[in-house]
Amino acid sequence: MDYIQTTSIETHLDHNSTPEALAKSYDDWSGTYDEEIMTQLNCTGPRKCAETTEKVMSGSNLKEVRVLDVAAGTGLCAEELVKKGFTNIDAVDGSQKMLDLAEKKQIYRRLICDFVGPNPLDIEKDAYDAIACCAGFAAGHLKEDCLPELIRVVKPGGYIVITFREEWLHLYEDFKDKLEPAMARLQEQGLWERVSREIFSNYYQGKDGITVVYKVL
Q1: H/E element holding 79?
Q2: Which pairing describes strands 207-216 and 154-165: parallel, antiparallel, or unpaired?
Q3: pLDDT in tens, 122-140
Q4: Model-level pTM?
Q5: Which domains does the chain have, with CATH numbers?
């Protein structure tokens, strides 16, 4: 039986949702989020995103690498990053209650409550060595219009690691023929270059995941 039809996540994947409505939805979900995503669904996305971030930053002292966790939620990806040795991690997410739970885990240095899109974030240019973004790209969530802002806050030579559900590229109208072409255009403009694109199995409940890595130029 399809995951979307059997879990409460369906209510958070409305492509017509406004940012404010989405934030309210996650505020309401925050209390059971970790249990549902990691225990009931055994989502491997946070671990995969962290492993890939570790791989691309392998030549650096991970304790000194400054990472921005985009669409951080309650900090599931950051928990995996900490296991890998990262300690200098900031978070940005649109749900304050999700960030309140993340703060209690004591894994972030700074938590920013904001919607990630074409709008400038309260972050300086070239501030981070890497971005880790797990599950932020989904129906009604992040879209291709946020990519220039992600590039802006990562220093040249830094990396952007994005992990999400692979079938969104085919099923979700806001991604289909839009997300990857937008990534390609940014490469053509000389803003970043693709390092890798990997489809992997068992993102959750039989669904494939995809992780793409870009190096900022």
Answers
A1: helix 76-84
A2: antiparallel
A3: 999 999 999 999 989 987 7
A4: 0.89
A5: 3-216 (3.40.50.150)
